[in-house]
Structures are given as C-alpha cells and as structure tokens.
Amino acid sequence: MVEVYRCTEQIIATVVTGLDYGRQEVTFSALSPSLQGKVYVYDKVFKPNATQEKVYNEAAKAIVKDVLMGYNGTIFAYGQTSSGKTHTMEGVLGDPYSQGIIPRIINDIFNHIYSMDENIEFHIKVSYFEIYLDKIRDLLDVTKTNLSVHEDKNRVPFVKGATERFVTSPEEVMEVIDEGKANRHIAVTNMNEHSSRSHSVFLINVKQENLDDQKKLSGKLYLVDLAGSEKVSKTGAEGMVLDEAKNINKSLSALGNVIAALADGNKSHIPYRDSKLTRILQESLGGNSRTTIIICCSPASFNECETKSTLEFGKRAKTIKNTVIVNEELTAEEWKRRFDKEREKVAKLKGQLSRAEFELSRWRSGESVPTDEQLKDLETSTMSLSETASAGNLTASTLSVGGTTPTAAAATAAPKGDPLVGEERTRLYAQLDEKDDEIDRQSQLIEKLKEQMMEQEELITTTRRDYSSLQQEMLRIQQENESAKEEVKEVLQALEELAVNYDQKSQEVDAKNRECESLGEELNQKLCQLNSAQNELQQMKDHSVHQKKRTTEMLTSLLKDLAEIGLVLGGPAGDAKPGTDVNGKIEEEFTVARLYISKMKSEVKALAQRCHQLESFQSDCNKKIESNEKDLAECRLLISQYEAKMKSLQESMKDIENKKRALEESLDELNEECSKLKAAEEMHIMASREKEKEKDSAEKMKEALEQQIEKHRDAHQKQLSSLRDEIADKMGHIDALKDANQKLSLAQERLQQEYDRLKQEEQEKSHKLQELQFLNARREQARQDLKGLEETVSKELQTLHNLRKLFVQDLQSRVKKANQGEDAEDASGGGSLAQKQKIAFLENNLDQLTKVHKQLVRDNADLRCELPKLEKRLRATMERVKALESALKEAKESAMRDRKRYQYEVDRIKEAVRQKNLARRTHMAQIAKPIRAGQPHAPHAPVGAAIRGGGMVYQPPNAAVEKA
C-alpha cells in the first residue's frame, strides 16, 4: 500500500504556514507546542505548488501497468473538506494542464494498450456510482437509487445491478464520466463552493486475452473520490447539508476504524460491514489490490486539528500490507501443463519414496548402507511435495504411497556391538520415524485429495444438471422468440389496417372537398341572386319615392277641391239637372276600387306565403349545417381513434423492444453460463484423464455442447438481426404514417378553416338576403297599395273635376236665368236639388274611400305587428347561427389543443426514444466491444469490430494544446 501526501493551498484570513515538506516526510514547525517537531513519513510528499502532471507521474502512473498485467488497483484521496481531493482525482476535465488523475490514467491505459502486442484482445467496461446518505446510487442510471453489495463465488464484494458500459476509446470513457458527474450531489458550504456530498467510485474493469496461447487476465481499477470530513461549526451546514455531513463523517469514521483494525494486526474481526464504503473497498484495504492513498491536507493553522487527524490516518494506513496475485483465468492447455508437471513431480517423489523404503528395509535388516547410496534429497523433495499439495494443485489419482509405520521401525532391535554403530542406528531409527510421520501426513493428504475429487465429481454432476436446465431455458427463450415474432406480425397487420383506414379517410376528405366546392358554387349563385335583388330593390325604392310624391300632390289638390265644394255647398242652393250619368260612373269607379282592394288582399296573402317559403328554406339551411357538424364530429372521432391506435402501436413497439432487450440479456447470460459449463467440462476431462471411456464421452459431450451452443448462438443472432431489421422497417413505416397523418391533419385543418369561412360568408349573405327579401316584400306591397290608391284617387279626382265643370256650367246657367221668372226659379230649385243629391253622393263616396283608406291602414298595422315576430324569429335564427359558430370555434380550439397534445406526445415519445437509446447504453454492457492492441481506436469504427494496426500511441484530442 503506497501512501502519498499532498498539501493544498487554502486562502483564509491570517493563515500561518505550519508545515515543512521533505521528499518523504512532513514536519510540524509553527503550530501548537504539542505538535511542533512531529514528523510523518510517507512514500511521496508533494508541495502545494506541485503540478497535476507531477502528482500523476509519481503517484499513480505505475499502477496502469499493474492493472494491464492482471492485478487489481485502487487510488483514492482522503482528507477534510475543501482540501483538494476532487481537484486531485478529477481536476478540470478537458484541460490538458489541470486535469486530474482519472482522465490522465484513462489516456495512459489506452496508450499502453495501443503499444502492446496486437495479438492481445481487450474488453474494457466501466461503472460509475456514488455513496450518498449511505445509499449506493448509479450515476449512469438515476433510476437506480439504492443498490446493494453482494459477494461473488470468490467472496469478493461487488455492487449488484450497477450499470456497466463497454468502451473502446478515451473519448467514450470521458463521455461516461461527464454523464455521471452531472448526476453527482454537490453543495455550497462556508469552506467550499463545490463541496462533494457523496463518495464517488469509478470502476474500470480490464479483461484481456492472448489469441495465440489463449491466456486470459483481468484487472480492476477503483478510482475513488471521497467526500471530506466536515466540522459543522466551520462549514455552517444546516438542513439537508447537515444530514449529508453526518453520513459523510459516519462513513469516514468507519473507514478509519477499518484502517486502525488492519494496522493493529492482532484483531480477528475487521469491521468492513459498518459502512457501504468500507464494504466496497474491502479488497483494496488488506486484500488483493495495489492501493495508493493520497492524503490531502491544509497547511493553515485554522485547520490544525483536521490536518493532524488526516496525517495520523495516513500513518496508520501505511502500515497495512496487501498481498496481491495475478487474476488469471487458466485455459484447458494450461491446466493440462500444470497437471503433467505435478504428475512428473509425484512420479519423481514416488521413486524417491521407493528408494527410501528400500534403504529403510536395508537398515532394518542390519545392513550398512554406504554414504554414496543413501538418499540425501528426500527431505527437500518431501517438503516440496507438501507445499505443492497444500497449494491444491495435486489430484488424488496422482499420489499412491506405501510404507511402514514408526512402530514397525521401533520393533527392529539394534544389534549388539560397536557403540558407534548403535548411535548411527539410533539416528537412523529417528530418521525413519520422521519419514513414517511424513508418510502419514502424505496419506492424510491423499485422503483430502480424494475428498476434493469427490467434491469435483459432485460439482460436475450439478453442472450437468444446470446444463440441462439451461437447455430447457433456451427452449423456452426460443418459444418466447417465436411468440415475439407472432406479435411482430400482428403489429404489421395492424399497420396495414391503419394504412387502409388512412386511404379511406383520404377519400372521405376528397369527398368533403368536393362538397365544399359545390357549397361554394351554390354560395356564389346565392350571391348573384342577392345582388340582383338589391338592384331591383333600389329601383323599387326610387319608384316608391316618386309614387309617394305624386300621391301627396294629388291628395293635396283633392283636399283643396273638396274645400271649395264645401264652400259652394254652404251657400244658397241652386237648381240643377239630375246627373244620372255621373252616378253611374261613380258606381263603376267604386266597383273598380273594390276590385283593387281584393287584389291587394291576394297580394298580401302571396307575400305571407313567400315568408313561409323563406322560413322553410332557412330551416333547410340549418339542417345542412347540422349535418355538416355531424360529419365534422365523426371526422374528429376517427382522428382520435387513429391517434389511440398509433399510441397503442407505439406501446407495442416498446414492449417488443423490452422483450428484445430481455432476450439479449438472457442470451448473454446463457453465453456466460455456457462458458462456465465449458470450463467445468474441461476440468472434468482433466480430472478423469486416465479413464479413457469417460474422456471420450466427455470430449464428445464437449464437442456436442459447443456445436449446440454455436448453433443456438448463430440462430439467436440471426433472429436478433431479423428482429432488428423488422423493427427498423416498422419504425420507418410508423414514421411515414406519422408524417402522412400530420399532413392529413394539416389538410383537414385547412379545409375546416376554409369551410368555416365559407359557412360564415354564406350565413352573412343569407341573413342579408332575408332582410332584403323582407324589405322587398314590404316595398312591393306598399307599391301595390300606392298604385291602387293612386288609380282610385285619380278616378275620384277625374269625377270631381267633371262635377266641378258641371257645377260651374250650372252656376253660369243660373246666373243667365236669374232675370227670368218663376219658371226659371223652379228650374233653378230642381237643379239645386240635383246638385245636393250629387254632393250627398260624393260625400258618401268620400266616406267609403275613407273607410278603404282606414282598412289599408289597419292592414299595414297588422303587417307591422307581424314584423316584430318575424324579426324575433330572425334573431333566434341568428343566435342559433352564432351558437353554432361558437361551437364550431370551440371544436376548432379543441382540435388545435388535440393537435398540440398530439405534437407534445410525439415530442415526448421522441424524447423517450432518445432517452431510451441513451439508457440502452446501460444494457450495452452485455455487448462486448473488443479492442485489439497495437493500433489506436478509430473514431468511426463499427461497434464490435476488432481494431488492428501497427503500434501507434494514442494522442488525446487536446494533445496539441498541451504541446503548445
């Protein structure tokens, strides 16, 4: 474990620098007396003015080669808040001078890969998560907010469910970092403007395979940016920030306890489970990992206590020693080589054991064994055998030892004679007892190996059962695939039906267009009729004015004549001749007047019928408007149905996409299980090599399994590709339908607007036409009335004029006969009587004319009474038209809202598809992207294609800036 100290500058009022820096030690010089002269020794010490490049080259660069050689590595920064941990780990991303360890180590990893042998293929996947409020949040998928920590088969902790993405270039890794960094929790405190409120862990998993010798290595690199310990009195944390500070200090306290327990060395329990941070870093702290801890401190006297605590933490952590091993996945050939090597060792040890037994039998029989014939390397060989067997690399079938026990050796009596010989014999007996003990230990080891072999056989049995269950699972997945194909066919049929309905609706729209054109033509005809009626009405208006003027003049002259007649009649009555002819003429004129009156009544009835006809025409127009509204409502209903169908089709496409993703995941799981089964089968073949029958059957099983797996893989890949093609075609078809539907909606909206405009114009013109027709009818009636009255008055005037002439003549004759006698007086008296009769007749006739005039006035009043009713009905019709217009306007607004909602749904679906494509990168961790060493990454290389080439070194995009 490497400890690196880094001191960061901090601007605080009255800062007192209290630290002296050496190359590998830090000394308190100007702080409190209890700390003055205190020395802390580390592997490296960096001054505050050290550059990012220097920190990386001396502290972190060496770990890149270790990771690419198959070792695990960890780099994390520890210290109080605002001490520069995030600046050290991340720095300013994209800045070649200020970028931190993470971006530099990423570029360095790919540069090493591009400079290695091109026969090595790499698979690199990354994860990015944070520990916030003691919960693990996935920074690449914000929906995963509480992930759990599990252990794999080797009891190594890992975060289950964390998003893993395969990457092939530094740019892709930086995109992942930018995406995750945007989701991190930060806050503003009194000590830091961008204070990290969580511990972030960026995990790089590098797997490599040598295509020549099939050698596989894997290495993990943890890049951890810890949140800083906080003193609430300094940071001013409150509310949610205070809760975050509590959890941060709690997890860092758990980390300190783990470091203290590991540094003690005498504690049997290490509290890794006290915090999720220590649980994740279990391998990095005292496990299989090369760990670099960067201690970040502040040189200000304001932070004296925190600086001391941080340095003490680094001092304890420096005493921890990690034991690292290469993470190597052995191939079948490697296992075979090791097996052969161990078998040769066992055979050699067997020979040595047999020679030792022969020598022992000679010694027991009392025979002296010369020194050159004694077995001297037995002890060394036995020790080697014991170490090899204890490492678990021997099988039970490769060791068979026979020998005697110490009791048998003790039963041999020492021959009497030379004391030197007795001493030598005693020494040999002691050696024999030791050898017997060693033989017993080897026998026990053999028993253990037999037990291990039985366990391996049980493992093979369970593996076969798992294989059969996996076969059943593959059959089930194939059935699900077939069902998915059926669903795709149903979706295609639904799309075809949608296209047919779209054609039908297009035809209906054409029919509506033709109907609108016919309505427009009819409206033009009505407009022409309206114009002609207006012209005729203007003419009638002029004629009516002229007739009124004439009537007024004639009535004035008639009244004058009647006044003169009255004056004349008021004088002395004269004689006149009876005017029987005049009476007959007057009767004829009255008859003519009555005929005119009856004719006027018939014309009034005709006008009433005309009004009824206009009302029926208006009701027909209203019915047409209602039918058009019903058609419009039906069209809207059909559009809403099509939108619902489109929505259901999109949901079905989402379901198909989810099923496809599930199939891909299950396929990858099956591939992984098959690889495990393959490894288990290979181990089984090596364990049962001496049994030729089992070996042949295992090889056949292996070949059949590989062939079957290959067939299933090819079939599944073909199915997946066909599904992808079908889905792409369907998406294209759906896009085309969406465009067509949008065009149809726009055309319908345009036609609706045109129809509304024409309808409004038609209503306005119909209203004007009704008013003009009503005025025309009234004026026609008045004209007829005036015409009849004018004729009647003309005749009466003519009669009065004739009577006036007769009266004047009669007066003249009476004046001439005034000087005559009594006869003339009688004649004059008879003439005066005749004149009186005529005047009475004229008065009677005038009374009748007055009555006719009054009747005409009453009829006119009745018509005026009917006029408000007709106007009321007209207003009701206009209100109905306005209500229909408002309803149509509301319908248009509703259609616009529906269209906006539909557009919003389309945009939302597009955004969801885009987010899904981004989220699918979460599942792309199941799609391997191999990187072939020896050539830099091609920016537009197809996914999954191996990259080959000739040993160039990758230059980041900002290399030119750094060089400048």
Description:
The structure is a single chain. The protein has 964 residues and is of the alpha+beta class. Helix content is 66%, strand content 10%. It has 17 helices and 18 strands. The strands form 4 sheets. Strands 1, 5, 6, 7, 8, 11, 14, 15, 16, 17 and 18 form an 11-stranded mixed beta sheet that branches. It has a 3-stranded antiparallel beta sheet with strand order 2-3-4, with helices on one face. A hairpin with a 3-residue loop joins strand 2 (19-21) and strand 3. The protein is elongated. Mean pLDDT is 73; it is low at 8-18, 377-417, 571-580, 921-927 and 939-964.
SSE order and pairing:
Blueprint: E1 2-7, E2 19-21, E3 25-28, E4 39-41, E5 44-46, H1 52-59, H2 62-68, E6 73-79, H3 85-89, H4 101-114, E7 120-132, E8 135-138, E9 148-151, E10 157-160, E11 165-167, H5 170-181, E12 186-187, E13 195-196, E14 199-210, E15 216-225, H6 232-235, H7 240-264, H8 276-280, E16 290-297, H9 304-318, E17 328-329, H10 332-364, H11 378-390, H12 406-411, H13 419-570, H14 580-687, H15 692-816, H16 822-923, E18 931-932, H17 959-963
Parallel strand pairs: 1-5, 1-16, 6-15, 6-16
Antiparallel strand pairs: 2-3, 3-4, 7-8, 7-11, 7-14, 7-18, 9-10, 12-13, 14-15, 15-17
Helix pairs in contact: 7-9, 10-11, 10-14, 13-14, 13-15, 14-15, 14-16, 15-16
Family: Belongs to the TRAFAC class myosin-kinesin ATPase superfamily. Kinesin family.
Main location: cytoplasm
GO molecular function, one term: microtubule binding
Give the key terms.
964 residues; alpha+beta; eleven-stranded mixed sheet; three-stranded antiparallel sheet; 17 helices
